[in-house]
Amino acid sequence: MSCRSVVKHRSSALWALTVFGCLASIGCGGPTAQEYDSSLPGKLDDPVTRISSAADVPDSTEWDPLFVAGSAPENRKDYAQFSFQVDAGTATESGDSATAMVIVETNEPEEVIGKVEWTFSKAPGGEDAWLIKTCPLPPGAPKAP
Q1: 67-123, pLDDT tens digit by residue?
Q2: Of 32, 40, 63, 133, which residue is least crowded by CB atoms under 10 Å?
Q3: Are 98 and 40 in contact (CB under 8 A)?
Q4: pTM for the complete prediction?
Q5: Angle 98-103-106 (CA atoms, 0-180°, nearest 5)?
Q6: Those residues with Cβ within 8 angstroms of residue 88's Cβ, 6 or more apart along the chain or in another chain
Q7: Is 139 a member of any domain?
Q8: DSSP assigned state of 140
Q9: How many independent structural domains does the chain possess?
Q10: Domain range spanning residue 128?
């Protein structure tokens, strides 16, 4: 191999490492450890945003774990047609309990139908995990067919 060939290969390898390093630092857009929202609204939003997908599961394997034991609503299908999000400025914590206003939207078309106060309890043995205690739907919210 000639000197010119070695320099050319090293130069290509250095360029490839530089490009790879840039791409690795940018990432692929997925969540990172730094993006975890450890604030109270972020912790409450975890079970809240999972409600509609859990309500769509035919059995209660994903639904029941979101709630304090015995407090899961029976009308699961009514929740499947909406999306939910904690209104961040409304979350308050008092010991092992918390409350927050939850924004309720229809899925198709996406439209806010109301805000309601939900209550939460800390999960047993979990400092960061919260469970839903009460989760009323807004008055007049449509029922699932």
Answers
A1: 999 999 999 999 999 999 999 899 999 999 999 999 999 988 889 999 999 999 999
A2: 32
A3: yes
A4: 0.72
A5: 140
A6: 39, 41
A7: no
A8: T
A9: 1
A10: 40-134
